[in-house]
Write a structure and sequence with these properties.
about 140 residues; single chain; elongated
């Protein structure tokens, strides 16, 4: 592939990935708190009201998860937007890590790895519509 064609393909791919990431942020900004995050919120709530994890509360998560969840809840609040911003922060941190690891090979490889990770991660955390009767 000639160098000029390679540069154009790389520029178009980079623009496409950036647009996909921006659409991901805009389209998922309103997602509610659900799944494991809601369960962890409840466990932290119970812990704050005197119950002990692993003795009074059956939970398979490691203690650091509860500590991190509790710290973010107490410092920033427990609403959905706070957790969405925290999720974006963790995705950005992982993306920066991918970029640093891939940088010796090419900046595009780092952007591609970070974008692919963020988009695949979002696909696994999609909010599913309710399947209960009358929820249409």
């Amino acid at each position: 592939m000639p160098d000029r064609l390679y540069s154009i393909t790389k520029a178009i791919s980079t623009a496409f990935l950036v647009v996909c990431l921006l659409l991901f942020v805009v389209k998922t900004w309103h997602w509610p708190l659900m799944g494991d995050a809601a369960l962890m919120h409840y466990i932290v709530f119970l812990k704050d009201h005197g119950m002990a994890p692993y003795r009074d509360i059956i939970d398979a998560n490691m203690p650091t998860t509860l500590i991190l969840e509790g710290a973010v809840m107490h410092f920033f609040g427990g609403d959905s937007l706070t957790w969405r911003l925290f999720d974006f922060f963790l995705l950005a941190l992982a993306g920066i890590s991918f970029f640093v690891i891939c940088r010796p090979y090419s900046k595009f490889a780092g952007l591609f790895a970070a974008s692919l990770f963020a988009l695949i991660q979002s696909a696994f955390s999609l909010p599913m519509p309710s399947s209960s009767p009358g929820s249409e």
